[in-house]
Amino acid sequence: MPLQFDLNTRPAILPLYFRALTARKPGSFSGDAEQVLASVTLHNQRIDRVLLRTYREVCGFAPGQHLPATYPFVLAMPLQLKLLVSEAFPFPVLGVVHIGNRITQRRPLRENDVMEIRCDLRPPVAVKRGYEFELITSVRVAGDLVWECVSTLLSRAQHQQRPKSRAGQAGGAPDLSEATSSAWWVPADTGRRYASISGDRNPIHLCAPTAKLFGFPRAIAHGMWTKARCLAALETETFGGVLPDSFTLDVAFIKPVFLPAEVCFQSQQSDDTTVFAVTSAGGKRAHLTGTLVRN
């Protein structure tokens, strides 16, 4: 029987971080590969409009009546962390890497929508680099499914199992031979600003001294900030300020963006599909690749 949580308020972040630092985990998995390990449901979630306005500013979105399609991920972040620190998740949370994220928006979410948010933790799958697992988040309004997200994460735990692969992840080098491009400057405080609205205060994102404790020379940008910044750029530069009502936004996180940094954003549209990428200023290092597909 999967572990289940039913909540009416968002869980406090600090106790979850304390548990992430102190919880003992077995570091291996041998259970049912098909059964959901744990789930959490948050009822009657309403939008904090001040926080939403700050999110738009930090990620580059223009003001509007609809939520950015990446914003519900911020609302779900404490729920995801609650699952990862629970007894159902067999690996240490520190060191888990976010390698892919796919969001499907079925219709735009409005600022006055009252949401039910659910997160499911899927079982790990043994791959060459360790174990991959998925956190599946859904948002319902008045019982209707309006938004879904699949986050693919990697734990580098060792195993002796035969490696498998998951289908449906964005990746590889997209065809950007006719792409438009723009340069972004990503300030040193980007990680701290995004952490203040998302609650994701992982030390690797905050400043160089805390990042160095975990082996990074400087702080790195949150992957979901980079994805949100891409969506904001697509909205203004590719879609003339109006995104499709229904679309799937799929990205692969490849190399971290060390802060501060100048990066290059490229996008190319063809029929219902737009491919895009974020690279280093010279184009030698790929940070993120992705697609936006109109549904």
TrEMBL record:
Pfam name, any one: MaoC_dehydratas
MF terms in GO: fatty acid synthase activity
Superkingdom of the organism of origin: Bacteria
Domain MaoC-like: 189-278
Listed InterPro entries: Fatty_acid_synthase, HotDog_dom_sf, MaoC-like_dom
GO cellular component, one term: fatty acid synthase complex
An annotated GO BP: fatty acid biosynthetic process
Name of the protein this chain belongs to: MaoC/PaaZ C-terminal domain-containing protein
Organism the protein comes from: Microbulbifer pacificus
Organism lineage string: Bacteria, Pseudomonadati, Pseudomonadota, Gammaproteobacteria, Cellvibrionales
